[in-house]
Amino acid sequence: MSVELSFGEKNFIQGGIEQNLRADGRQRLDFRPMPIETGVIPQATGSARIRLGSTDVIVSVKAELGRPNSHHPGKGKVVIYVDCSSTVGPSFQGKKGEELSSELSTALQKCLLGGSGIDLSSLILVEGKLCWDLYIDGLILSSDGNLLDALGAAVKAALSNSLIPKVNILPDLAADEEPEVDIIDEEYTQIDTSSLPVIITLTKVGKQYIVDATLEEESQMSSAVSISLNRNGQICGLIKRGGAGLNPSVILDMISVAKHVSIRYIATLDSEISTAEASSAS
Amino acid sequence: MEFVNLQGIRLDGRRPKELRQLCAEIGVVSKADGSAAFEMGNTRVIAAVFGPRAVQNRSQKIANRALVRCEYSMAKFSTGDRVRRPKGDRRSMEISLVIRQTMEACIMTQLMPNSQIDICLQVLQADGGTRSACINAATLALADAGIPMCDIVVSCSAGYLNTTPLLDLNYIEDSGGGPDVTVGILAKMNKVTLLQMDNKLPFDTFEKVMQLAIDGCEAISKYIREVLLENTKQLEYRRGL
Amino acid sequence: MARTISDLFSKKTDIPFYISYIHKITPNQTLKQNNQSTLNPRRHRERDHREMRDLKDLQKSLNQTQRVRLQSALQQLQEIYSRASSSPAAAVSVSDCIHVNLEDGVLKGHGTTNRNDDVVATVCGIVERVNKLVYVRDLRARYKPEVGDIIVGRVIEVVSKRWRLEINYSHDAVLMLSSMNLPDGMQRRQTSTDELNMRSIFEENDVICAEVRGFNHHDGTLQLQARSQKYGKLERGQMLTVPSYLVKRRKQHFHNLEQYGVDMILGCNGFIWVGEHVEHGVDVPVETVKSSIENMSIEEQKPNNFTPLETRQGLCRIANAIRVLSTLGFALSVEAILKTVEWSISSNVEIKDMLLSEFCVQAAEIEVQRRILLTKRKN
After folding, report:
1. What CATH homologous superfamily does C142-234 map to?
2. What ipTM does the predicted assembly reach?
3. Which residues of B touch C16 (CB under 8 A)?
4. Residues B204, B208, B213, B215: what is their CA dihedral angle, to the nearest 10 degrees?
5. Could you report the per-residue pLDDT of A218-260, keeping only the tens digit for each?
6. Residues of A in contact with B25 (CB under 8 A)
7. Does B201 map to a domain?
8. A47, A187, C61, C125: least surrounded by Cβ within 10 Å?
9. With an 8 Å Cβ cutoff, are C306 and A35 in contact?
10. Taking CB atoms and an 8 Å limit, are B13 and C172 in contact across chains?
11. In Å, what is the CA distance from B60 to each residue of A95, B96, B142, B147?
12. Closest alpha carbon within chain A to C349
């Protein structure tokens, strides 16, 4: 999904990035304003909708009871899947959006689930037999670049909004019996998202890197590196996209730039999520 | 299961001839030519219209009228139990075809030869009546895009449970095993463009249920008309002279 | 039966309330809770106020005071409009009857159709009457071209002897080689070499400014011409897309904003070009400039080949002003754009902050003031 630009326009964009004044007046390391809305899908356990310029994504979290994996009997399961709606554009009708959606799904899985982002052992109810399965579904309604960052932020917001019901496990069961549960109404636990990483994509255009590229800027990139960082500055995942090869020193430089940006970004994201929660609760 | 109790109140507190809460919003997808979001109770649908534009696939070009394409898809989180349905499954294709035929009947395609109109429908939440909500949302989106139509198409569903005709079924009532009649009408011209039913129903009861659905359609068409008028007025004021 | 339903419907709260308020179902109201009358349509709903178009996205980020200010500004606009126009806005929706005195022999124009001797609207819009012609002016539809319009378009294909351009219309537009000035400026016959060298004039994805010459009668495509010096390829700038109804037809569409060193072209089709000022009449040898640049990679290009920083700042400010005005739905005219830019400079708003909600609300208020002044001057 790229936008075709004329030579003069490309020159203009590259010049802007060199001179630290992009087409909409932002500097290289500035994000667009990011309004968040939570609780948009009442049927889900938690949901959030995020807008980044014209990019519009909805993420919903559904918690269902399931069986833990036999390799990890002490942990719950999390599955992330992203879908591209046909409202993105007429070129995304039918099966054409599948390539983009599968690329984004795998990228999200790698970035968010690497490291101890979500405490999977908190999802376990009966060791080896019963756990909560979290199904995280993303839907892209409109795209204007930087989908991965928007999805990462929306997943964090949706998880903060999730209220998992508390359960009573009926005692006295034999070793091979299925446990019976009783779901308590009106009592919920929240998921701890403070250690969930955020994803920051750095797009390299010319010699400089920019954060939060629009669709036009993305069409000019030589390569892009998406880094997921948590609050402590640790890297939880790293993906490189784009056709050009990168010098290893350039990648190390990009990682340090991302670390520097992430401090401010995590703070903005947290404040946006809490405003969203406050306004949806009122 | 008792769908209508002795006092005549349904499971969600409505009376048998009462519609669910309607809510329409125009202009939700900024990149589309026209878009709308329509809610009927807990069913929420977004429609986006792209067009009229030049035909992408030359072989499908029609010389004297516009080509109308429609795609219906449900989000994975839309239903109560999360089911992974692929995009091109049978139910979606059937509904896409039905909606395309319904909308083609009202769009004045002969005014836009050699062009293409794409209608994209996305269900965000499904609680019964998604077909009807999609048609209503598509009408709003087409009007927002300024595509000439000969009339507004509205749609509503009705059923028959516990010997009572019920208007606008939700998911629980829909899966109650009774018949489900979906009607789409052209509001002013009073013509039926869509009529679907599943299950079985004796003929005179069918007439009652269909009439109930048509009455529901008329109420929805009034609401849609008011939303469109208000939107037009607001756009004109802001644009200025 | 019909009476019962419409009675119930009319008991619901007032129409403006319906349209501007959206019911938010909180997570506690699930389907399992049957006894609550949450789905009872007669319950009073309170929620945040929303508006339309991209204004909705804007509204989501406003706090309470900003919302109130924006609402009062829009209200004032409504009053100005109703005072200024001689008759109230006769808005119609699809398939509404238009009141017409049939004996006068009325001509039915765009957006109308005949139905059983009645004139009926086919689009949502405002009814306009000009002598005997009655038509419906629709607002958000695609661009409606007229001969002599100045448009900005992008080349999608180079075919034999013509370029196909994308403008915001239901078909593509065509620019014939014969409607273009030849690169060396001489008036001569086109040879086959010229046909082979079409790409040296315009390539795919180039942005071009041209004028509408006419319609091609058999398939409705648009014919363009670019014979004057002021038309042609546009470089060193950015192209913005706005809804075409916001650009009104005026005498001047080319604007040279001298104090910023910026050229602005308001295309009637909704494509707006904002770029560095280029002197017309100077025959820039297009081929040599382009080929030399293409041979260098990005890193090798000298920084002084890019637009200078001050021009760029002016450019970005103007582009952001256009974005703000189109989000708010105000008609784009040079005066409105310049006023917004001057205000942003005088109140020391940074360029990137022009897209934030605070500035949008201020821009709405400025526009209200400007329109009040305009109507006072007219009266």
Report:
1. Nucleic acid-binding proteins (2.40.50.140)
2. 0.86
3. 230
4. 140
5. 888 888 999 999 888 888 888 988 878 888 999 999 999 999 9
6. none
7. yes
8. A187
9. no
10. no
11. 19, 18, 21, 20
12. A25
